[in-house]
Each structure stands twice: as structure tokens, then as C-alpha cells.
Amino acid sequence: MVFIVKINLLLRMAILNKYKKKWKTLLLLRKDRYDDFVLSLDNTKAVPLDGKLTEDCLISYIDTNNPECIIDNSLLFSDSKHSYENAINDNISLTNIGFTGIDTSIVPFDKDNVDMNEFIDIVQMSTLDITSGDTRLQLLPVSGNTKLYDYPCEIVSESGDTYYKLNGGFLQGFYKTCDGKYEVLPQYINNAWNLEFVIRPRSDYQESGNTINNIYPENSGIFFYMGTRAENKFVEYFGCKDIDKYPLREVSGDTSVETSSETLKNIPLLTTSEGHIAESGIEYDITTDNAYLIYDRTCDGYTTDTWTRGDTLRLTLKHRDIEDNLYTLMNRTCTGFTTDSLEKYLEEHPEKYTKNKYNIISDLLGNAFALKVNEDGSIGYKYLIRDCDSEDKFSIAEENGFPGLIKNGEWNVINVMFKILNGEVDKCGVPLGERRMKIYIYVNGYLKFVSKELPEFNFRELNDFCGKQEGVAFNLSLGGGTQGLMESVWFNKMTGSKHIFPLEQNFAGSFIGDIRSFKFYDCQLQYNQIENNYLFENKNEITPIPEMVKK
């Protein structure tokens, strides 16, 4: 029962005062039932409770019972009817996908059947083309070219119902690139997001003893992840001031990568399609029309005669922390340094500077979020946020609802609303200042959980050259979390990450069960709209699995 109430407070009090002598008010608390009481926002239109699918601001919809959403009996695509208003796909071609795609089987290869030259070609020459104008969300089953873990999952059709069976595997994709040429979901929350999932936990599925849940059982049950897929994989090779504080990975045989100078000198330097050396550390490409930079008195620099309005210059910058004063070193004297000679000097005197002052955690703050169903039937979230009181300057915010909310062996319609509490966005949708949010979780049409106040999401690219992180930033996972760098492959075709980093520790896990649909709304849904979606999904409800219900 839902009441829509709009009463002027002063009028209400006047009525009560007028008749207070005639009325005897008695408030009794009924213990045999409860009713929901909802206050509507002003100027919102009434939504009838009719059981129809809510399509207002539905920008991505994956339904496994829609043949359009399943490609090659494994890939998931959102339907073509619903799309993000500001979506863009400007003839996207990822020419550096080999550097990171080999970690998740976006770029598959058999490490046991390729030689080093073939492997280098795979890394440097692989490309990923997305059909121009295609703004559907694309998700593919994750795997691992290291062959260390299993990721079982499959499409199943039975009794007129089609769903994705997840038994240690999950699906993953990216919805935006850092070059601005591809975006199929929004980067920022304008006012609110509503994400909806139809999932069925299964305790009767027998996992293999070789899934990521076996390594991190505390992460089992993660059914959704959003943020960066992994830390910067290259920190193992170009250095990081605090890398030694992370635990070393226990490996067997030859699955580790030796990063000693003796080993590295026998392996050619790998370069991106733009010519950036992957192991060189943090680099930035910028395009500028700043006259101070353009008129640089070099052979290639502009002069007043050669520059015309609108001309820009593309520069590659490196992050350096140099102890000497560059203003005095680069002094245009005979002995003064130029950009070329300074680079050579620093390479010969590494004690003079910190080559890469890279902070792993700074890439992750607000950039890693997961939803999770727990063994006791509770549902909650995990979110990596800044924590200045922590030694590591971050913590995992985590809250869970009451046990028994998510029924085992039954389809559950879960709607999760992310509501911004303060602040605004500019005309491009970029937040103005620090904003806070709350998370509201509805189960089968009823509000069951409200989070504490949290910093809003800060989904973004890594602090490095764009070409070295294709497919990493702006990740979305369905049915699981993220592998982090536990499946990273490098140099000798084996696992490249010697250390265990935070994403792997806190988000490497998967949901055991079935998933039928996923919806992404970029606005706030009213209660009746959430209830209608539950009624809509319930039309296609199949009979619960009896033995599962008992458990």
C-alpha cells in the first residue's frame, strides 16, 4: 500500500486545533503487519502501478531472454532500443590493446605454443576495432592466459527461460576510453543512478577447486563491479616508491617474472603504437596552444612567422622529482642543460632524481566499487575510499543488510539506487566540488537497505599515458568483481605481477548462481517504477528450485 501525501503543515495544524476537543486520538502499533509510507517529491508525475517495464532513462538493458543480447552463445550485448543519450563511438580502434588485453583474454593466446618473437608481436600489433556508431554495452567472459585459474560459465536455456550460469566465471567490459572517442555509459552521476539485476544464487553448483573464490573466499558473492579493472601493471617495471609494502605473490615453478637487470636486458623494450616505451614510467601526452610552450626556440618550435591561430603542439611529458633547481640548470649558457642533455644527465645520475613518484592508491580512490551477496542471504557493498587515519591512506567501506534478504534458489529482483546528496554538475556533467551519496537497495520491490553517507564515485583513467591502459579504466563486471593484476602477463609470457595489490585482495571474487538481466538507469526511479519492474520480471518467473529453497 502506497500513500502519496502533500499537505501544507500550517493547514494541517489549524484543522487539528479546531477539532481537538471533539477528537480523541489514540495511536496503536500493529505487530501483525507493516505498511510502506512514501512521501513523493514535489512536481513529480504520478506513476500507475501497472507492472510495465520502466523505460524512462533506461540507457542500457541486457536481457538473456532477448536473442539480440547474446552473441556467439557467450558474449552479452545491451539491446539496441535503449542507449545513453550522450553516447559516442567515433570509429574506435584500440591499437595498444595487446599490452593489457593479454591479461583478460581480450587478446587470447596460448603461452605454451608461441615463441618470444610471436609473443612480442601479439603485444605490440594486436588491435581491437569496435564498429563505428555501435553504442551498445559489450561484456565478454573473463579468462586468464596464465592458465592458473578456472572461470566456468555458460548460457543455459530450460523451461522457456534463458540465463547465464556462473560457476566461478563472470563477464567484463569497458564502457569508456580515456581518449574521449568511446563512451556508452556516463562517467559521472548527475542526480541518481538506478541499477537493476535479476539474479538467482545457487548453492547446488559445485565449484572447481581452482577459481579465484578459492583464493579469496571472502570475496565470493560479488555480482557487480565498476571502476578500474586493475592497477597500473607497469609499476613492477618502472618502479614505485612504496611497492615493497605490498606482499609478494607465492608462485611455483617458472610462473614468476624476474625483473632483474640481467633478465630485462635480454628482452627488447616494448613500445606502444605512439612510440612510448611501456617500461619508461609515467608519461603524459598533451595537446596545447600555449604560446609559452609553442615558442620554444627549438628547431621544431613555432615562431611568429610560422604559427597561425588554431595551431597546436602535441607534447609528451614525464613525471620527474628532481632535487636540483631546473631554473638554474637550464640557463642557455654553453654549459647549461637542454631538454635532451638533461635527460642524458639524469639517466647517468639516477641519484639526482626520483624517476617515478607514482602512488598506486591514488589511482584507486573512489575508483573501485562492488555489490555482493553473502552466504547468509544478506546483500551489501564494498567501496575503496580515502582514509587519512589509515596507515595506507585508504580503507574498504563495507556494509551489509539483514540476513535472508536474497533467497537461495529463487530469482531476486535487486534495484540499487545511488543518490547524490549535495552539489551540482556543470553543463558537461562534471561534478562541481566534493559531493556525497547514499546507496539504497530494493529487493523484490521493497527498500531493504540504506547506506551511510559516502564520497561519490570518481571513475577515471589511471595516472599514466592513455595507450598503456586501453580496456583497463572504466570497467564494468557482471557476475563478479575484478582480477586486478593476478592474471597479468608480461615479458616471459608468465604472470607479471610479483606483488599482491589492493584490487585483487578486496575485489577478486565471483557470484555463484544465475543472472537473467541487467538494467542501467541514469536517473532516480520512483517507488512505483521500481515496484513495476519487479512485477514485470515476476511475469516470467519460473518455479523455484525446491531443494534450493529448503537450504
Rg from Cα: 27 Å
Structure class: alpha+beta
| Cα distance spanning the termini | 31 Å
Unreliable stretches: 1-7, 252-264
Estimated helix fraction: 10-25%
Contiguous helical run count? 12
Count the strands?
A: 30
Q: Shape, please?
A: globular
Strand content: 25-35%
Mean pLDDT: 83
Biggest sheet details:
9 strands, antiparallel
Structure, described:
The chain has 551 residues and is α+β, with helices and mostly antiparallel strands. The protein has a domain at 58-237 and 360-550. It contains twelve helices and 30 strands. The strands form eight sheets. Strands 1, 8, 9, 12, 21, 24, 25, 26 and 30 form a nine-stranded antiparallel beta sheet that branches. A nine-stranded antiparallel beta sheet has the order 2-3-7-10-27-13-18-19-20. A hairpin with a 5-residue loop joins strand 18 (368-373) and strand 19 (379-386). The model is unreliable at 1-7 and 252-264 (pLDDT under 50).
Q: How is the secondary structure organized here?
A:
Layout: H1 9-18, E1 58-63, E2 70-71, E3 75-77, E4 88-89, E5 93-94, H2 97-101, H3 116-125, E6 128-129, E7 138-141, E8 153-158, E9 161-167, E10 171-174, E11 182-183, E12 192-201, H4 212-215, E13 222-227, H5 235-238, H6 261-264, E14 283-288, H7 291-294, E15 313-318, E16 321-322, H8 326-329, H9 339-348, E17 353-354, E18 368-373, E19 379-386, E20 394-400, E21 412-420, E22 424-425, E23 431-432, E24 436-443, E25 446-450, E26 454-455, E27 475-478, E28 489-490, E29 494-495, H10 502-507, E30 512-521, H11 527-538, H12 546-550
Antiparallel strand pairs: 1-30, 2-3, 3-7, 4-11, 5-6, 7-10, 8-9, 9-30, 10-27, 12-21, 12-30, 13-18, 13-27, 14-15, 16-17, 18-19, 19-20, 21-24, 22-23, 24-25, 24-26, 28-29
